[in-house]
Amino acid sequence: MEDVPLEHGSLEHLLPPSWKTLVTAWLAEDTPSFDYGGFVVGSDPRKATLWGKSGGIVAGGRPFVDEIFRQCDCTVEWHVKEGSHIELRGHGGAPKGKMAVATVTGPTRGLLLGERVALNTLARCSGVASMTRGMLVNLRAAGYRGVLAGTRKTTPGFRLVEKYGMMVGGADAHRHDLSSMIMLKDNHVWSKGSITNAVRAAKSVGGFSLKVEVEVQSEAEADEAIEAGADVVMLGNFTGGGDVDIVSTSAIHQGVPHVDFSLKVEH
User: Which residues are catalytic?
Assistant: First the structure.
């Protein structure tokens, strides 16, 4: 398979300075008041094993899981690389049907404070990466050599994680938000009266650095978009075939099965 971003550096270096505040908010949501379970277990130092329990790709361990446990005064040692497949055949002496992907060390209370938030994040991100990788493999097997891309149909508050998962899986994340690229869909065109009017308005403020993408429903609309100066033409709900450069779909991140993980404290 062709290069994916992981082969050229750490995707963590793409994240904005504010991303760690997301982790703080997730932990605050899960423990807004007293931590009664933490009172029960105390703060004695312990180790816990993070198990992968279903097939898929590990994604989101670095950086998200690392930061979750860091904020709970714990450290994570990973036994697999980001983007690795989970091996369920007793890999590394593990029982058949699961794989030890990491060891987490810290106060017992910290381990359990971060447990559910970490598992939810890892399961979701890994699910997106796994679905993405599977679809990319199928596209290549069918002879398609273009780009697979996601969409903006992401979970509110969780977009960064899901876009990260798409990239670990080998897809293009597409635009991240309304400021990343100007995409003109049917409502924009109807509101402005025509594709030409919409593109001209977008070009007047987007400058040279922002591409304009237009969704069209027919070849005639595609011709109009190109003539108006659109940089990208999205063929909305067209049949397959033809010289398509990019396949963009929400199927790689919307409603995808999660990868199953668990965290077990050693005793």
Answer: 153
DSSP 237: T
As a whole-number percent, the residues of the chain with pLDDT over 70 amount to 94
Give me the domains of the chain, ranges plus CATH numbers: 5-143+256-265 (3.90.1170.20), 147-252 (3.20.20.70)
Is residue 76 within 8 A of residue 102, CB to CB? The reply is yes
Q: Which of 50, 48, 64 is nearest to 124 (CA)?
A: 64
| 100-130 pLDDT, tens digit each | 999 999 999 999 999 999 999 999 999 999 9
